[in-house]
Write a structure and sequence with these properties.
Largest sheet: 10 strands, antiparallel
Helix content: 25-40%
Structural class: alpha+beta
Strand order of the largest sheet: 1-2-8-9-10-11-20-15-14-13
Mean pLDDT: 93
Low-confidence stretches: 1-56
Distance between the termini: 23 Å
Strand content: 25-35%
Radius of gyration: 28 Å
């Protein structure tokens, strides 16, 4: 079997490279009259030095898509635009300008750069657009330092005839929504070759210019004519190669401070580039690393970690926290969701914790809890302009959600458990307890936290409302009891711990009874205002599965419902069925596809051992990271067509988290308990994966690497431990119900194990201490079997065509496997098979000479999904 899934899927329109970007070398040898041959020699020497000395960086390239969103961000600044090269600039909380663009002046012509954009290359800290004309090419590198209030644009010119670049933009000097500055102005500073933005109080200021800027034309308004565009030229390159530079800087502390940053960026951009590259390289190195046989999944995981950390923003008035996402603002002052959100940060924290980034989680939680309401309610959103308006008093948004409060309790416990930071639990206890008091005040007569009259759960509007309480919201309230009980136990509050643990068990049972619809065999979306079930099947029911709250039989029935094509598209999960009378493919909360939903579903499906639909959802999210705004995941897509909604934020932080969480918490079943010095690894490995590695898993002071290998008759796990202190590993890989375990041994000695079977698979579970150095575990097996399916994205604007695996069931003797699938009428599909020699025959499909199962779906209307039952028969054992 070939474990490389990319070979059988749609080829991605990008190239990933791990090298040092060549354009970064040019900045070390600017051309100040030196002969080009000398510069070339110096660059060659320096390239060799970098090849030896530099750790490789992460990079993606593809042909330009002019319409796609292109963000370049740091913690204090951002450039938001598209791949044509048009963008707007922000230094939080200020917007500086919009509609930035380049014009290339050659003899007798002025060429708009957007018509010549050809390729895009992105790294975590920069994006490079290549423009090509008949006699020249220009590489425009947009660079935003990690911690500076500004940005640098490098223009590497190569031309055979005179070329001059003009930079133009529309000044839009303003505070981010909902604040306002008042009267603003712009002027030309000839001494610093820059346009200055200012306002009458002299508090806010910005510089946009270049050391070579000349011939400035400012926006103006007169009785007779006007222009809203400001522009300047960068000087003529007669022939050959030359670097030009633009600098953007701003300050909330006046003109002199902005000028100081402007000069620092202009003279130190080379050092700042290296610092930014190191920042992201070190981030990837210190969080959990993976080596996967699926290249697309590998790339997506690495970029998702980068995309998450790019949500970390510092506002000089509010502090540092996680924003929700980015999009251009156009003529408004709302750049997508580039302000701070409670529940977004908390859902993202689960991915950060799983990857070992505890510092960002703590920063995000500390930011959110600063703005906890006096009655304990956790904020929903905090605008970047909140300091300038009565945000928390007069606006309806700060505490609009109800779900942020239980999520705060759950996320705090998750952070403390993973990190071992009991001191933080002690410091935050009063806030966590106050959040619980607020949660209690919202309970209805059944003991579930209400939405109606309190705040929205997941659904904020549309035909699914009004409700008394969503299953989603009530499940979070129930899980919050368990989380709070655990925190109380850690702090020695034994009576509280016991009472909350008992209450959790009661509520867990009551939750299932209240929301399970036995006649419909589904979980209800919500209870209405009369406490009657609203039997609308929804992907939101997978959130309780994430926390393993539903009864197993009920969860499996619900997953079967969600796995069909009316809920699952090739690019993710719809919020409700496309068969629902309420469904609208563009409905933000009643038909669209969110990567967030898809991630919830994947983790929930893995929790209940439904590995095939779980992997399909996981890989769908991963492929989105490598499409669209490359390196990022969009907020929301159409329910019918593979296309982001026009209002979507293309770089949404919790969407990136829903690549990381399904991989680590779902696929690998990775859990770290630093307080008990334990790491759990319970993987549901795709059937044709023969290997993977997980490195840098932290359990307190101990770091552990895992290297897994699968053969037809064995599983091998090499475990390397470093650091001091105890460490226990619980390893529980999933195997087929048909598999038999012959033996297990650790470092050459027999190791005891237990078999834990469910309706879908069985896990061979063992628990053992890990000594320092390398440890070797071997599990010998017989008759393991598995099916694998490689899903791909359709063409942009296309519809779903992929196969859905609705259910799998074995007979008692394990001699027959029934697989219910759904695919397009007359469509053909193929399962990869692990150990196909065991198969004696297949019904409603064929076994190929390569050992795969080939499926031909029944007839039907074009594009219509139809069902098929496969029966796989096995020979005698």
């Amino acid at each position: 079997m070939n474990p490389d899934f990319a070979s059988s899927g749609r080829k991605q329109p990008l190239v990933a490279r791990w090298d040092f970007p060549f354009h970064a070398l040019l900045q070390r040898f600017p051309n100040h009259g030196k002969p080009l041959a000398l510069i070339s020699l110096a660059l060659t020497i320096l390239l060799v030095q970098f090849t030896v000395a530099q750790t490789p960086g992460i990079e993606l390239s593809r042909t330009v898509r002019n319409w796609e969103f292109l963000p370049v961000v740091g913690t204090r600044s951002g450039l938001f635009g598209n791949e044509s090269g048009k963008f707007e600039a922000w230094v939080y909380p200020l917007k500086l300008f919009r509609d930035f663009h380049l014009t290339f002046h050659v003899p007798n012509r002025a060429l708009p750069a957007e018509s010549l954009s050809r390729t895009l290359t992105v790294t975590p800290s920069s994006a490079t657009l290549l423009y090509v004309g008949d006699s020249f090419r220009v590489r425009e590198t947009l660079f935003v330092p990690v911690r500076e209030p500004g940005a640098v644009i490098l223009l590497d010119v190569e031309t055979v005839q005179p070329l001059e670049i003009e930079a133009g933009f529309v000044g839009d000097f303003a505070l981010e929504w909902p604040a306002a500055i008042g009267g603003t102005y712009e002027d030309w500073d000839a001494d610093h070759h820059a346009v200055i933005f200012g306002e009458e109080t002299k508090k806010f200021a910005a510089f946009v210019g270049s050391p070579t800027a000349i011939d400035a034309h400012l926006a103006y308004e007169t009785n007779y004519s006007s222009s809203n565009e400001t522009s300047f030229r960068l000087g003529v390159t007669q022939r050959g190669k030359e670097r030009k530079m633009l600098v953007i800087a701003a300050s909330v502390a006046g003109r002199d401070d902005a000028l100081k940053t402007y000069e620092h960026l202009a003279t130190s951009y080379s050092d700042l580039q290296r610092e930014s590259a190191d920042y992201y390289r070190n981030y990837l190195a210190r969080t959990v690393n993976l080596d996967l046989p699926d290249p697309s999944l590998q790339q997506a995981y690495d970029w998702a970690r980068i995309s998450e950390i790019q949500g970390l923003v510092t506002n000089p008035y509010l502090g540092t926290g996680l924003v929700a996402g980015y999009r251009t603002s156009g003529t408004s002052q709302r750049p997508g969701f580039a302000w701070f959100f409670g529940r977004d940060s908390l859902w993202t924290s689960f991915a950060l914790n799983a990857a070992g980034d505890y510092s960002t989680t703590r920063t995000a939680i500390e930011f959110i809890e600063k703005y906890q309401r006096d009655d304990g309610k956790i904020p929903h959103e905090i605008a970047q302009g909140a300091s300038f308006v009565p945000w928390f008093k007069d606006f309806p948004y700060p505490y609009a959600s109800a779900d942020a409060t239980p999520l705060f309790i759950i996320a705090t416990d998750d952070y403390v458990t993973h990190s071992g930071d009991v001191a933080f639990a002690r410091e935050s206890w009063e806030r966590v307890w106050k959040a619980y008091q607020f949660l209690q005040s919202t309970y209805n007569d059944q003991g579930f936290p209400r939405n109606y009259g309190i705040g929205h759960g997941w659904v904020e509007g549309g035909p699914l409302l009004p409700v008394m309480t969503e299953y989603y919201q009530s499940a979070l309230g129930t899980e919050a009891l368990s989380a709070l009980s655990h925190l109380a136990g850690l702090l020695g509050k034994d009576d509280i711990q016991k009472n909350l643990a008992a209450e959790f068990q009661r509520r867990k049972v009551a939750l299932d009874q209240a929301f399970w619809s036995p006649d419909k065999n589904i979980y209800a979306f919500a209870l209405d205002k009369t406490n009657q079930r609203i039997d609308e099947p929804s992907v939101l029911t997978s959130v309780p599965m994430w926390f393993e709250l539903p009864e197993a039989a009920h969860a499996e029935a619900m997953i079967t419902r969600l796995a069909d094509a009316d809920h699952e598209t090739d690019w993710g999960m719809r919020i409700i069925s496309s068969h629902s009378k309420l469904y609208d493919p563009s409905g933000y909360h009643y038909g669209s596809v969110w990567p967030l939903f898809t991630g919830w579903a994947s983790v929930g499906e893995y929790r209940y051992h439904r590995a095939l639909p779980a992997y399909s959802n996981l890989r769908g999210n991963a492929l989105l990271t490598l499409d669209g705004s490359i390196g990022h995941d969009t907020e929301v897509l159409s329910g019918d067509y593979y296309q982001s909604l026009s209002t979507s934020s293309p770089h949404q932080i919790w969407s990136a988290a829903m690549v990381v969480s399904p991989i680590l918490r779902g696929l690998f079943g990775l859990r770290t308990d630093a307080l008990n010095h334990q790491i759990t690894l319970a993987p549901h490995v795709p059937a044709d994966w023969t290997s993977f590695s997980i490195r840098n898993v932290q359990a307190g002071p101990v770091s552990v690497d895992f290297k897994f290998h699968k053969a037809a008759d064995s599983l091998t796990l090499d475990i390397t431990r470093s650091g001091t202190g105890d460490c226990v590993v619980e390893f529980s890989p999933a195997l087929s119900l048909r598999a038999q375990i012959v033996s297990a041994e650790m470092n050459g000695k027999p190791l005891s194990f237990q078999l834990q079977a469910n309706d879908e698979d069985q896990h061979v579970s063992m628990r053992f201490p890990v000594r320092a150095g390398t440890n070797n575990l071997i599990i010998r097996t017989r008759q393991d079997f598995g099916l694998a399916l490689t899903n791909v994205l359709p063409a942009l604007g296309g519809t779903s065509h992929g196969l859905r695996v609705i259910s799998e069931s074995w007979n008692k003797a394990r001699s027959e496997l029934k697989v219910e699938v759904s695919g397009t009428a007359n469509g053909t599909y193929e399962f990869q098979v692990w150990n196909p020699s065991q198969i004696s025959s297949v019904e409603n499909a064929t076994l190929t000479s390569q050992g795969n199962i080939h499926i031909k779906m029944p007839n039907g209307h074009d594009g219509e999904y139809v069902h098929q039952i496969l029966l796989i028969h096995f020979g005698l054992t």
